Amino acid sequence: MTLALRRATFPSRVTVVVLLAVAAGLVFAHRLYRTAEISLSGAVLSVISSYGVHVVPDRQTVYFGLGSDTPLGLRMTPECTSAFLVLPLIVVGAVMIALRPRIQNRVLFALGIAALAVVVVNQFRVLTLVGLVQWLGVDTGYYWGHTLLGSMVSVFGGAAALVAFVWLATRK
To answer: What is 53-109 written as a DSSP string?
Structure first.
């Protein structure tokens, strides 16, 4: 005798509401998100930098290179946060779950991987900026690290996260 058990899943409507609430939270509490993100940057820089690092959470700013010839403060503005890339993923994930509830688990897994990738890419962008400022000086390093390479890292990393999200969420 076999007993068929139906796998209990979290109701998809609740998941959609939760995802949309998280998306709204990113919009309305972006300052808190930026504070967490710049604190993460400060923690990573503290581990890998031989110079001083100081985070001012209230201003979403990390100061690095303290004690070197090229100290600089980097403020995480709303335009520079990974929330801009995470937010559309969350909304698209909510829409996908609303339209096809049976793929909820795949979409949530894909969303977690893609969001993590976007955050890691943004941390890599900050590290690239810091490295170039310490290597090339403040003016040239900031220009190359923020305007050129930083933008390329964000675009390619965001595109890779989007491709991974779609692939993971839609594959069978």
So the answer is: EEEEGGGTEEEEEETSS--EEEE--GGGSTHHHHHHHHHHHHHHHHH-GGGHHHHHH
- Determine the Cα–Cα distance for residues 112 and 107; give it in Å rounded to an integer: 9
Mean model confidence pLDDT for the chain? 90
Q: What is the pLDDT of residues 108-117, one digit of tens each?
A: 999 999 999 9
CB of 64 within 8 A of CB of 51? yes
- For the chain, give me the number of helices (H) and strands (E)? 6, 3
| Residues of the chain below pLDDT 70 | 1-9
Instruction: Please return the burial class of 50, using the count of CB atoms within 10 Å of its CB with bins 0-12, 13-18 and 19+.
Output: exposed
Return the domain boundaries, the chain: 22-170
